[in-house]
C-alpha cells in the first residue's frame, strides 16, 4: 500500500501544476453540487416551512437585494401622495379614512398566521382587491422593493406600514409597492393569481396586477408626503410674522412646492395657508402643541385637487428633512459636578432614549456606570468617562442594591410597563440596541428562563431605589412618550438647570435619535403564558403600592391587570 502512495507523491512532486489543477477541479465540482442542491431545495414544496420560520426575523431588516431594490425604485418613482387630504377624496369605498390608534402587539400578526390574506378583515390590514398596474403609471407611487426568494404578504405590509403608507400592494409574486392612494382601476380577483415567493399559501398579485391591502397603522407611524412628515392642522399664531419669519405667495400652491421652498430655506417647518407658504421652526409662539380638527384646514390646493393647503386662519403643517440645530450642540460640564445624579432604570425601560433626550435638552453629555462602545460611536461621548469624573450631567445605571444606590446624591428613576420592558431587553440581549431576537429565541428555552429571572428584578429594582435613594424623581416611560415637553421640562429642572423652551421644542422634532427600535415589527403570538402573567401582575401591584405609599402617583393605568 505504501509503494503506490509513494509513487503518487513523487508524481505530483514532479508535476506541481497537475496537482493544483486537480484541486481546482475538485473545488469546482463541489461548488456545482452545492448550487444544484440549493436550487432544488428552493423549489421543493417541503422547504416552505423552513423559509416561513425566518420571515418574522427579517421583517425589520433589509437584505442586500432589498436595499438595491429600494434605492433603484426610489429614484424612478414619483413622490408619493399625502396622507392628509380633503373629505371628498376619502369618501370612496376603498379609500375611507384609516382608523388610527391602538396597540397591535397581539392583534396584528395573529391574523396572518394560518389564514389566507384575502380572508383577513381585521387586525393589521384589509384586502382591497386586484388592480391594474403598469411601469409607466404606477397604481401605488410610494417606495417599492423586490425579493424574488422570500417575499410574503406580511413582509410587504410591514415595510409599507413602517413608512406610514396607507396601502401595500404585491405584484409578480415578489414585488412590493407602497402608496397613500390607489391611482388605477380594479379588476377581477382571478387576475391576481401568482403565489408569493416566500409563502405559497398566499397570492402576491400577477403580471401587471397588484393585490392591494389597506393598512391599519399604529400611532407611531408617521403620516408623510414624500420626505416630509405631516404634523397636523393648527390655528394661525397671533403674531405670524414673528412666529414664522419667512413667507411667500406661490402660484398654483401645492404641498410639494411649499415643502421644497422651506427645505431650500433650511427651515424645519413648511406651513401652508391657502396660497401662502410660511417657513420656520417651532417656537413658544407656534409650538405645535394645540392641534385643531383637520376639517378646519380643508381647502383644496390650487396646484393639486387632492391636497389640502389650509386657509388664512388654520394652517397645514409639515416637517421637512432639514435638521433643527438649536439643540444639537453638546459638551461636557464646564466645571466638576458637585453631586452625582443617577439616571436609573431596569434594562429595557428606555434609559438610552432618555439620555438622548436629556443631552439634547440640556446641551451636556450624560455618563454611564458601564462602557458601551456602540453607544460611544453613536455620539454618547460621556460613555468613555469614568462615572465619577463629574464631567457629565447624569449617570446611566441599571444597578440596584443599597451600596450602589447610596453612591448617588439623587436620581431620576425611569419605570416602564414590565411587559414591554422585558420584551425590549430580550430583543436587546439577542438582537442588539435596535435589533430583534429571532423566533428561535422566543420559542426556545431562552425566553421562559429570561422572564423567570428578570421579572422579579423589574420590581426589586424600583423598590430598592425608592427605599435607598436619597432624592428620587420618578418618570414613567409611557408618560414621557405621551407628553414629552412637560415631562422633559421636569427632568431638566430636577437636574438643576434652567429650561430653554426653544431647545425643548427642537427636541420634539428629533426625539427618536439613533436608538429607537421599530414599533411595527410584532410577534405573531403573545409570548407570555398565563403563569407568567399571574406573576408579573402581582409584581405590578407591589410596585404600585410602594409608589403610593411614598405619596407618588401609582403606575399608569395600562400597567394594571384587567
TrEMBL record:
Entry's transmembrane regions: 20-41
SUPFAM superfamilies linked: P-loop containing nucleoside triphosphate hydrolases
Domain of life: Eukaryota
PANTHER family referenced in this protein's UniProt entry, alphabetically: SIALATE:O-SULFOTRANSFERASE 2, WSCD FAMILY MEMBER CG9164
GO molecular function: sulfotransferase activity
Protein species of origin: Oryzias melastigma
Family, as annotated: Belongs to the WSCD family.
Xref: InterPro entries: P-loop_NTPase (IPR027417), Sialate-O-sulfotransferase (IPR051589), Sulfotransferase_dom (IPR000863), WSC_carb-bd (IPR002889)
Domain WSC stretches: 124-216, 227-321
Lineage: Eukaryota, Metazoa, Chordata, Craniata, Vertebrata
Protein name per its UniProtKB record: WSC domain containing 2
Keywords associated with the record: Membrane, Repeat, Transmembrane, Transmembrane helix
A Pfam family hit: Sulfotransfer_1
